[in-house]
Amino acid sequence: MNRRALLIAASLAALLAACGQHPAPPETPATDAAADAPRPLRRIRFLLNSGFSGANAWFLLADERGYFRREGIEVEFTPGRGAFTAAGRMVGEGFDVGYGDIQAVYEQAATVPGKSPVGVYMMMDRSPSVIILPAQSPIRSAEQLKGRTITGHATDVALNTFAQYAQVAGVDAASAHIGTNEGNWKELLALLDSGKSDALFGYLSTSSAAVRTAGQDVGARLRFLRYSEMLPDFYGSAVMVSPKLLHEEPELARGLVRAINQGVIDTLCDPDAAIQALVKRDPRQNPVVERGRLRDTMVEDMGGVDMINRGVGDVERPRVLAALKLTAEARKLPRTPTVEEVFERGLLPPLEERQPCPVHLR
């Protein structure tokens, strides 16, 4: 260093000392505590298909294990009034997320395009709907429903998709006498016992749970005409999100799907853990009955072992197209929505994250 530089340095040091100042310390990285500070949670309103049960316990397991919070989400669950009502209620009541029947999404997309929720995670690979018969009923096929009385809740999925079922079966839907009854399942099953109704609309899992609750054997009391056999292109319940959440907060929506998927995978690998989470949330639940309901959902609605082990959550485009076309025709919708209007595959986790441990249904 030359003489001039030494003089400048000495003068600067003297000036700082005289003013009681010290050079600023170098910037330091944020402390670990600051880096680990929890981010504020985004509260979302989540409309369920019904109250909590074995058939949707994966949401509780995801919540209990912190998967939503890990994605920056706090979930406010609202019990639903039936799977077919979820899509319409999302439009009318402003829910962020819903869980319900995808057929209702098709209808909302046809009637209020741009406002309808969009499916983002398909839970049920098959239609869960059935026509419920007494075990000793002479009815063995859809053709034999002509002139018969079939009763169900007005919002039941099977009742609201009977037009599609009948069209494929080659039966005039108007040839059956459709009745509604808002009673509980004990009261509905009593209609079969008394002969006041020849059949009921419903889910196999729901009606079977009602029979088990009464301490009876399902096979000895009921038989089923499965919609999945007549309508193989139909899916069942899906997680759906509002257009606002999908388009304005896509990363939050992606995190939501990731959290739900983890809850589903954990449930498939350890169903008892999901039932424990259910009973912990609502001690009034019967764990044996709800375990049976969950098993029926996995076997009948999610597609069984083979389908589950191939990977959950996704849809096949040709099936959705076929279901959209049939639904628009049979329900006389004003338009046929596109696949993209009713389901967004882009938020799904990679396939390897949607394949559970080898599932052995028991």
Structure in words:
- The structure is a single chain.
- The chain is of the alpha/beta class and 362 residues long.
- Helix content is 46%, strand content 14%.
- It has 19 helices and 10 strands.
- The strands form 2 sheets. Strands 2-1-3-10-4 form a 5-stranded mixed sheet, with helices on both faces. A 5-stranded mixed sheet has the order 7-6-8-5-9.
- The longest helix has 20 residues, at 250-269.
- The model is unreliable at 1-31 (pLDDT under 50).
Quick gist of this model?
By secondary structure, the chain is α/β, with parallel strands linked by helices. It has helices at residues 3-18, 32-35, 57-64, 67-70, 86-93, 102-111, 157-160, 162-169, 185-194, 204-213, 218-221, 227-230, 243-248, 250-269, 271-281, 287-301, 304-310, 317-330, 339-342, and strands spanning 42-47, 73-78, 97-101, 118-122, 129-134, 149-152, 177-180, 199-203, 222-226, 237-241.
Largest sheet: 5 strands, mixed
Number of helices: 19
Number of strands: 10
Regions with little confidence, pLDDT below 50 for 5+ residues: 1-31
Which strand order does the major sheet show? Answer: 2-1-3-10-4
Encode the helix/strand succession as letters.
Answer: HHEHHEHEHEEEHHEHEHHEHEHHHHHHH
Supply the helix-strand structural class. alpha/beta
Give the termini distance in whole angstroms.
83 Å
Shape: globular
The pLDDT mean sits at 91
Using only C-alpha atoms, the radius of gyration works out to 28 Å
Which percent range fits the helix content?
Answer: 40-55%
Proportion of strand residues: 5-15%
